[in-house]
């Protein structure tokens, strides 16, 4: 019988869910915070100590060996050149042309962009922070970070950006 990859994923989770429910019932656990502790404990046991019935190996050991042997699709995340931060990668992106006053317009707000020649295109990386309500705008020109400014999310109308 051909087992789908969906089945391979769902089977351990179904098994784990059944096990957690049984442990919580057996131990009289009624609060979610206590159930989370059971889940953490069972995940650690399953991944770090239990020999898997199909592979005959402990999942953590199997995973790290595959990584060491370059047989895994997991790779270390490295911020590519010329960028300096994950903020430059995981951001809203846009670009603008610098006017004769070294400014750009973004959502009817004029922002000064120093160190960029007139009428050249500047790349924007916009990182909204929902918690603080402040967006960081990072200006890139010619593979260099040339400036950072902060504005309120609501001024940029971030929801509709």
Describe this structure in words.
Helix 1 packs across helix 2. The protein has helices at 5-27, 32-48, 59-68, 153-156; strands at 92-97, 103-106, 109-112, 121-129, 134-141, 144-152. The protein starts with a helix and ends in a 5-residue tail after the last helix. 34% of the residues lie in helices and 25% in strands. The mean pLDDT is 88. Strand 4 (121-129) and strand 5 (134-141) form a beta hairpin. The protein folds into 2 domains: 5-68, no CATH class; 86-160, no CATH class.
Strand content: 15-25%
The SSE order reads HHHEEEEEEH
Find the structural class using helix and strand composition: alpha+beta
Major β-sheet annotation: 4 strands, antiparallel
Low-confidence parts: none
The count of strands amounts to 6
What's the Cα radius of gyration?
Answer: 25 Å
User: Looking across the biggest beta sheet, what order are the strands in?
Assistant: 1-4-5-6
Q: How many DSSP helices?
A: 4
The geometry reads as elongated
Helix % is: 25-40%
Question: What's the overall average pLDDT, rounded?
Answer: 88
């Amino acid at each position: 019988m051909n087992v789908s990859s969906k089945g391979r994923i769902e089977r351990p989770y179904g098994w784990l869910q059944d096990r957690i429910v049984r442990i919580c019932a057996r131990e009289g656990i009624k609060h979610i915070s206590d159930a989370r502790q059971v889940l953490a404990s069972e995940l650690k046991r399953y991944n770090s100590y239990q020999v898997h019935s199909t592979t005959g190996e402990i999942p953590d050991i199997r995973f790290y060996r595959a990584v060491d042997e370059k047989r895994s699709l997991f790779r270390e995340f490295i911020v590519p050149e010329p960028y300096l931060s994950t903020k430059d990668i995981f951001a809203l992106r846009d670009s603008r042309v610098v006017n004769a006053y070294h400014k750009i317009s973004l959502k009817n707000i004029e922002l000064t962009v120093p160190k960029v020649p007139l009428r050249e295109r500047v790349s924007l990386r916009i990182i909204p922070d929902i918690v603080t309500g402040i967006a960081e705008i990072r200006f890139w020109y010619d593979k260099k970070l040339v400036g950072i400014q902060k504005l309120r999310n609501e001024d940029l109308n971030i929801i509709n950006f």
